[in-house]
Amino acid sequence: METQVSPEVVIIGAGIGGSALATVLARAGIAVTILEKSLVHIDHVRGEWIAPWGVAETQRLGLYETLIAAGGHHLARHISYGDDIAAKTAESQLLDLTAFENAGFKPPLCMRHPEMCDLLNAEAIKSGAELLRGITELQIIAGSAPEVRFRHDGVDRKFNPRIVVGADGRSSVVRSQVGIEQHRDPTHHLMAGMLVDGTTGWPPDLQIFGTEARINFLAFPQSPERVRLYICYAIDDKRRFAGADNQARFLDAFRLATVPGSEYLGERHSLGPLQFLRQRGHLDRRAIRSWGGADWRRGRTQRSDHWAGAVDHVSRRAHRTRSDARKSQLGVRDLSAIRGGTR
Fold first, then answer.
1. Which of 116, 221, 237, 266 is 20 to 30 A from 122 in CA distance terms?
2. Contact 113, 42 (CB under 8 A)
């Protein structure tokens, strides 16, 4: 096994959270390596809508201008349509998202997940972080001197960092290996999402949300010609989008009688397949609430935060729910520990 000079911090997962944290640490002069199992970031249909308080975090971390320069797209208006409200009434109750600016916040910011990951990966490397992709046989050994073993480019390697950060998603290898228990609410709804192109007829600053019949819908533009579509539906209707023609049936479902102009969404070209979250053998994205039973393990192994949107399609409320542990600012807060200080 090849043992090299170990970085001070090893981050498992090169997604948005892991690469943003790596960028901030590297800019502070801390030696950090990101380990990522994939060779290419794929569309997971999540992490594409940043709330105003999240946009404020990108500003605080010095990442906002990077996102904007690469095509980050702000939304300005929100309308809640549905079969329990007339369209004209819904439009009269439009929410001006730019009003957040009166409180010092910017409105929601949208960007496609793989593109944001690639962008932040490049920013992390530019800032001095190391990124190793195609990692296999990952093993985390917690303790007073944590150890990370893995295989890269056919070579077995080992690091002994000061801190290990798990930023590897809901099915975290770090969490399972260091014994952080995951809790979860029972699944009650499923979600499917698709990115569509050629939506020039749809207002590029308008997001919509609502309920029609037995579905809850959400749509938000990522650019003047690209919109992300979501449909949430009850678990007893889990076969709704099963089969080879699921893309066509999903787009048909977005020809909404309660939403004026929805034909600009339901008749567009898909930029990819209808996406689902694979979990516990199911092919459907789940609207779930899950969270970690513990945040830390001896030796400063840490889980980063993950948020999931649990949608109640009957009451038309979207609830933000929390998953494992803390947000990646914890890694920044612990810089004194990395540098040999005390907490």
1. 221
2. no
